[in-house]
């Protein structure tokens, strides 16, 4: 069944254009180059327009963060729907996340820079906590003995693999194999 295309209002289109401009700047200039002036110039809108959509630069970076993860969450949901229940679905989630981070390295890099920056660091920590919390029921269903600890370890491993792959620009099959082995081993641990 085909979903009908989403029709955006002019305000939504402008907001998306600003976020697209920020995404493009992330690719070329990182967080340091993420000024309101550069964002609005790239989007082709007046500086005041930026403030109609975002309270400040931090709010804009948070919106980029949210959009990045909305896209990843949608990709994960699609991958999970295509995988068999249990460990295959869990693996599909992890691999899809890694692939999405690798595909969108610029925003992932920007978000990594932002992790040490006040409210942005809080958002990154909240996201990691939410990912770990969301993994617990699945790990429990897989029979993992220590699901909370295993969830935090998985989040940490996935994060580190994403960073390493971002730096090389390609998947690391050995790291991914080790991650999958951890997932499988945790499910078999007594």
From TrEMBL:
InterPro entries in UniProt: Homeodomain-like_sf, HTH-type_Tx_Regulator, HTH_TetR
In terms of domain of life, where is this protein from?
Bacteria
Query: Which UniProt keywords are given for this protein, alphabetically ordered?
Result: DNA-binding
SUPFAM superfamilies for the chain: Homeodomain-like
Signal peptide segment: none
Domain HTH tetR-type span(s) in chain numbering:
12-72
Q: Which PROSITE patterns match?
A: HTH_TETR_2
Pfam families for the chain: TetR_N (PF00440)
| DNA-binding region ranges | 35-54
Question: What Gene3D superfamilies does the record tag this protein with?
Answer: Tetracycline Repressor, domain 2 (1.10.357.10)
What is the protein name stated in its UniProt record? Answer: TetR/AcrR family transcriptional regulator
Species per Swiss-Prot/TrEMBL record: Svornostia abyssi
């Amino acid at each position: 069944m085909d979903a009908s295309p989403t029709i955006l209002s002019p305000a939504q289109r402008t907001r998306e254009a600003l976020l697209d401009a920020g995404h493009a700047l992330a690719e070329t200039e990182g967080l340091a180059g993420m000024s309101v002036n550069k964002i609005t110039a790239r989007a082709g809108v007046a500086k005041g327009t930026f403030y109609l959509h975002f309270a400040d630069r931090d709010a804009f970076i948070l919106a980029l963060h949210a959009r990045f993860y909305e896209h990843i969450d949608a990709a994960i949901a699609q991958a999970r729907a295509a995988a068999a229940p249990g460990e295959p679905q869990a693996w599909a989630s992890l691999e899809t996340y890694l692939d999405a981070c690798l595909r969108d390295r610029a925003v992932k890099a920007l978000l990594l820079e932002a992790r040490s920056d006040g409210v942005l660091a809080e958002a990154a920590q909240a996201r990691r906590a939410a990912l770990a919390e969301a993994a617990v029921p699945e790990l429990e269903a897989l029979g993992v003995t220590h699901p909370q600890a295993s969830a935090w370890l998985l989040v940490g491993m996935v994060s580190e693999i994403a960073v390493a792959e971002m730096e090389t620009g390609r998947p690391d099959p050995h790291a991914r194999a080790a991650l999958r082995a951890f997932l499988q081993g945790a499910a078999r641990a007594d």
